[in-house]
Amino acid sequence: GLERGAKNQFSTFSNFITTINQKKEGIGNRNSPTQLVIPNIKNVRDLPPICLDVRQKQRISIDTLPQELKAPVPPEPSLPIRTKTVKDFQDDVEKAKSSGDWKSVHDFYTTTFDSFLEINAAFKKDANSPFNTIEDSGINAKFVNVVYDALLNTPQDVQKSVLKGVINGLLQEWTGPRTKDDLRAYCILLQNPQFSNTSTYVIYAHLLRQIAALTEADHHFLVHWSKKISQKRFKQVVDRLLQFISLRLFPAKPEEFPPMVKCTWWIPSATKVLALFNAANCLISPPIISYMDFYNSTLDHIDLMEEYRNWQCYGNSHRFSFCQYPFIISIAAKKVIIQRDSEQQMISIARQSLVDKVSRRQKPDMNMLFLNVKVRRTHLVSDSLDELARKRADLKKKLKVTFVGEAGLDMGGLTKEWFLLLIRQIFHPDYGMFTYHKDSHCHWFNSFKCDNYSEFRLVGALMGLAVYNSITLDIRFPPCCYKKLLSPPIVPCDHNTLVGICDVTLDDLFQIMPELAHGLSELLSYEGNVEEDFYSTFQVFQEEFGVIKSYNLKPNGDKIPVTNQNRKEYVQLYVDFLLNRSVYKQFAAFYYGFHSVCASYALLLLRPEEVEILVCGSPELDMSALQRSTQYEGYQKTDLTIRYFWDVVLGFSLDLQKKLLHFATGSDRVPVGGMADLNFKISKSETSTNWLPVAHTCFNQLCLPPYKSKKELKQKLIIGISNAEGFGLE
Fold first, then answer.
1. Of 277, 294, 311, which marks where a domain is finished?
2. CB of 571 closer than 8 Å to CB of 518
3. Is it the case that residue 93 has pLDDT exceeding 50?
4. Pairing status of strand 701-704 against strand 681-684
5. Of 259, 274, 294, which residue constitutes the final position of a domain?
6. Which of these, 22, 49, 606, 656, has the minimum number of CB atoms within 10 Å of its CB?
7. DSSP state, 323?
8. Is residue 221 domain-resident?
9. Which residues are CB-neighbours of 69 under 8 A, at least 6 positions away?
10. What is the pLDDT of residues 333-356, one digit of tens each?
11. What is the residue-averaged pLDDT of the chain?
12. Spatial CB neighbours of 524, under 8 Å, sequence gap ≥ 6
């Protein structure tokens, strides 16, 4: 940011902005949506918000446009000739630092940022080349970086001249569509580090408004050019946009900004520009930065359900909602939306059941408000399948589980154990529903044909119930499973529509069957004669119950040889067969099971990776974080027994740490909010030290006797956590 001492020199630019406005009074129509008009800071005009409906476009679809847009390209005006190089500029800066004479540097900045033409003259690689393609922006990125890196270390009058020049450029009269030079200037100005300072936000807001108001074709170019920006600079621009949104929502000094009612377009404009960078990030594999770097945690503190309701009610209108841009909402905030949406659905279903009961003059029963599942441990899968099939209308009620013959009262712990035991049994290799791939440590659907796929529907329903009831499951599915689960995110009304089918690539296969994927990759890069050396056709073979069966990847595939020319098609069809076609019925049942519980517009907000985190939690354990957030009852954290406990636990292997977590909470995974969300408690057990520790999984509570030595505590704790299955009272 700018130096504190000089902040008052241009804390707001209303003085010279007003002067410039007076000089520009004759320019164009002030109501033009693409022309910048910067009035006094107290009187910023209210423009219609810019928004994007997620129901129509979940992500900005850049690839739907052709590589080279065929719209007429406006002629580029002639650029002034500027010969200063990076070396010349660096020499000028060094001389200015040593002599104190900044005139040469000041002149350079004043001239360069005075207009969009001058910006292009300084930073365009070749003034005579049009650079009208998405592949090359024509920007000398190194020169831009050097100039911006030096800017914040120059005197205040130099920095002030740059901002004044930016205003001049933004006040330019626009006639007709933007040229590629204009887009280049926008791309360069977005990287200006001065916009990290709140005193420049009025100017920054108008820059963002102009960029947000560009045509889709212009956005197409900006997205592809942005993906060429270095990771460091890309992250800086994203952070700057997120900070702008946060400080507009919750300003530290409200008097610094115009009243919110006068600038309702600030946040929509910034969010739409951020969407362009998110689109650019999604075009690169691997992405430039993590998708989590687009989260704005400030939004966790606004009324998210109001945002969600607005989005549901006005999704097709121009009313702005952050839910239209779900990439900016953190996974923790999305979990809150989904939970509250689930709670509202639960209450609605339970209320309807109560009304129906009363209308038939029947005595209400509290059990009717819950999804009551009663199972025998010895027939866990079959009983669970029968219960969920019989009570399909109750799936959106609060879940309660009872194990036949056991006195445990379900306050959360039995539900967790039911999930864990059921998942463990269903995913066992002997059960045959899923195949475990040792190389990738994940499960995939068994492609064997069968007469009834109801058990796959049960697994889908279990995953839905887990999300619905905020339970984390220990499931090892590959990422493409969650991509398929959101294809589409809303169950289609037409039952003939295919579900669970998505675009899959060789990268998706690598995450499940790395050895096979490596072989196909070798085929693609093979330099010899594929047809003669491999002698393959568009046909694959699979063993099913000891019988080898063949499948054509395309009509008459057994008669079509794989050649150097068609091998890409062969690999794509092979991957699609393995991940889509061969398991379609199994996955479709799984898909419908999941959505029978979780059908909600809130799913439109989620990325596949976020669905995985909601279902499974995170496998990364941080026991130090758990230690910091643990509450105590009957103990102090300085007590000897507690110190022994944490010395032992922090020294455990990962496997024993997971067993401890499973013992105390019913799950060995970490919820979305981290260890702090477990609300883990250690209570003093007033029993003999001969007793083992006891856990109340429904309260995430560990009852620990006051063991006298670390050795005794470790021995009893390991015995306890290693023999934790079952729930009984004696």
1. 294
2. no
3. yes
4. parallel
5. 294
6. 22
7. G
8. yes
9. 217, 220
10. 998 888 788 778 778 877 887 888
11. 84
12. 567, 568, 571
Is residue 22, in this structure, part of any structural domain at all? no
- Please name every residue paired with 642 in a beta bridge, in sequence order, or none if there are none: none
Domains in the chain, number: 2
Three-class DSSP labels, 4-47: HHHHHHCCCCHHHHHHHHHHCCCCCCCCCCCCCCCCCHHHCCCC
The tokens for 583 are 């398991």
Q: Which of 316, 192, 217, 232 is nearest to 276 (CA)?
A: 217
Active site residues: 698
Cβ-contact 294, 610 below 8 angstroms = no
- If one compares 618 and 707, the residue with the highest pLDDT of the two is 707
User: Would 573 be classed as within a structural domain?
Assistant: no
Pairing of strands 370-375, 398-403: parallel
The parent domain of residue 623 ranges over: 617-723
Q: Which two tokens stand for residue 569?
A: 């098609």
| Contact indicator for 500, 486 with CB cutoff of 8 Å | no
Interval 501-517: pLDDT, tens: 999 999 999 999 999 99
Q: Please choose, from the candidates 670, 334, 615, the residue with its C-alpha nearest in 3D space to the C-alpha of residue 460.
A: 615
**pLDDT the model gives residue 95:** 94
| Interacting residues of 220 by C-beta distance below 8 A, sequence separation 6+ | 62, 65, 69, 134
Closest CA to 697 of 666, 729, 728, 652: 666
Average pLDDT of span 159-183: 89
The 10s digit of each residue's pLDDT in 182-235 is 999 999 999 999 999 999 999 999 999 999 999 999 999 999 999 999 999 999
In this model, does residue 318 exceed pLDDT 80? no
Contact 470, 454 (CB under 8 A): no
Burial class (CB in 10 A: 0-12, 13-18, 19+), 293: middle
pTM, 2 dp: 0.79
Answer whether 605's CB lies under 8 Å from 325's CB: no
Kindly report which listed range (239-248, 528-537, 598-607, 638-647) carries the lowest average pLDDT score: 598-607
Cβ–Cβ under 8 Å, residues 187 and 23: no
DSSP string, 616-673: H-B----HHHHHHH-EEES--TTSHHHHHHHHHHHTS-HHHHHHHHHHHHS-SSB-TT
Within a domain: 130: yes
- 423: which residues sit within 8 A by CB, 6+ positions away? 462, 473, 474, 475
Residue with tokens 């599942």: 373
CATH code, domain with 682: 3.30.2410.10
- Residue 446 in contact with residue 433, Cβ under 8 Å? yes
C-beta separation of 502 from 487 below 8 A: yes
Report H helices in 451-544.
Answer: 454-468, 479-485, 506-510, 514-525, 530-534
Over residues 38-83, the pLDDT tens digits come to 333 333 333 333 344 444 444 344 444 444 444 455 566 677 778 8
